[in-house]
Amino acid sequence: MFKMEKKKVKTEEGEYTPENILWLKDLNKDDIPIVGGKGANLGEMFHHFNIPNGFCITVHGYKDFMDETTIGAHIHGLLDKLDVEGTEELDKVSKEIRKLIMKQKFPKDLREDILKNYHKLKHKIVAVRSSATAEDLPTASFAGQQDTYLEIEGDNDVITAVQKCWASLFTSRAIYYREKNNFHHRDVLISVVIQEMIDAEYAGVMFTIDPVNKKYILIEMVEGLGEALVSGQVTPNSYFLKKDTHEVNEKMEHFDLDIKLVEQVSKIGEKIEKHYGKPQDVEFAFYKGKLFILQSRPITTL
């Protein structure tokens, strides 16, 4: 599906070709083949918006892991025989594959690469996010198929979270979606994003065109981490804003919130949509009054 090339990066020391690690500052939207949709979008936005610092473990790292452990042939043998319409069988194969990945020894050189870069981060509490090459694409946005791990700290926990992200490429949902959208399992690879964690005071999601009326900006916000919103644990404040003026047209509030924060998010949403040239689904957080963009993906359901 994708031609996998090693990206050259220029530094003060000259040009080099990294094997396994690329920082967000070195990436852009064209790098989906090596860092997946989420990683490429974060790299693209890093140059234009306020994005938490971090780096990606490229698909080369995942590929090296699969090659070194020699489990790829067994995994794809299981998938080749699988009928994804059989829910019990799908769940069984998914569980078997993920268990197989998790019991493998993590490659020593890759572990050293990851931890050397992790130690360069200013804040050592991180978010570890999966970024597959068939995710957050302009034509197919399969959000939430792979796993994200929040508030991870310490060498061993970071490495374990990376391995769990790799394993999540084979959740039942991810396998089913690939089959139904004609993505060949062998062609889909996975990168992992490691980013400094934002201890959010408020967090939320924004659709730069709302899915209901298809004319407003829709913003949903909660107090604390956005995971509570994504998982449905709390009911968010919801705001429909006019796209031209960013004035609130309709709102449903469950806690007090400065409306200026909502308007600030809306205006950034307009800039992100303009940058990509199409409606976006954006995740964001506020920390000490400062707005951070956590990710953005195209809305493909309009």
Task: Please bin the fraction of helical residues.
Answer: 25-40%
Number of helices: 9
Sketch the topology as an H/E string, one letter per element: EEEHEHHHHEEHHEEEHEEHEE
Poorly predicted parts: 11-17
- The whole-angstrom Rg is 20 Å
The CATH topology of the largest domain: Dna Ligase, domain 1
Major sheet details: 6 strands, antiparallel
The CATH class of the largest domain, by name, is Alpha Beta
What is the architecture of the largest domain at the second tier of CATH? 2-Layer Sandwich
* Secondary structure: number of strands: 13
Question: What spatial order of strands do you see in the largest sheet?
Answer: 11-10-9-8-12-13
Report the end-to-end length measured between terminal Cα atoms: 25 Å
Q: Could you tell me the strand content as a percent range?
A: 15-25%
Number of domains: 2
Structural class: alpha+beta
Mean pLDDT: 88
CATH superfamily placement of the largest domain? ATP-grasp fold, A domain
Shape: globular
Produce a short descriptive summary.
The chain has helices at 32-46, 59-69, 72-80, 87-102, 108-118, 155-167, 172-180, 227-230, 259-276; strands spanning 9-11, 14-16, 21-23, 54-57, 126-132, 148-152, 190-196, 202-207, 216-223, 237-242, 248-252, 280-287, 290-298. It has 2 domains: 54-196, 2-Layer Sandwich (Dna Ligase, domain 1); 202-298, ATP-grasp fold, B domain (D-amino Acid Aminotransferase, Chain A, domain 1), CATH 3.30.470.20.
